[in-house]
Amino acid sequence: NGCQMMSQLRGMIPGAAHWPAFVRNLSEQFEARLSLVEIVETPSVLFRGMAGSRLPVVVAHGEGYSEHADAAQQARARAFVAMRFVDHRGRATECYPFNPNGSPEGATAFTSEDGRFTIMMPHPERVFRIAQMSWRPSAWNHKNDGASPWLQMFRNARAWL
After folding, report:
1. CA–CA distance from 88 to each of 5, 93, 95, 99, 123 (Å)?
2. Is the whole model's pTM more than 0.85, yes or no?
3. Are 90 and 54 within 8 A, CB to CB?
4. Of the four, 52, 61, 118, 141, which is 20 to 30 A from 5 by CA?
5. Whose CA is closest to 54, among 103, 92, 81, 80?
6. Confidence (pLDDT) at 10
7. Bridge partners, 22 (sequence order)
């Protein structure tokens, strides 16, 4: 997975020393489903203008638990959590199955200090069109272009380039 690989390269990426390693899910199994996440306010280029969004997204991983080297690294990483799993009430959660890997505080994406690098465990590239989702808010069914809110992430990347 690209997220796991990039987290292992954190020493080479400016402003990413706070990133965790991603290890075996607490459930001890591969998790594949649609989960609910919230985009958090960060300097992430990918998530510009998306903070506060709560969106369904595909997860598919066996090693998504974010493991920090120590409490200091975890405390530093909190400022750069870009996405977290939330429950049906919109609260960050560690509870299974809302959080399929059990990561602390629901954290499932992190960005670098300047926002140029963002790693994430969910797969928004698999749901950039509403037709790709097994569930979506009914209000989305009336969108003429068929784009899901995740397409904004790719538009942000293009605009940044």
Report:
1. 31, 10, 11, 11, 20
2. yes
3. yes
4. 52
5. 92
6. 96
7. 66
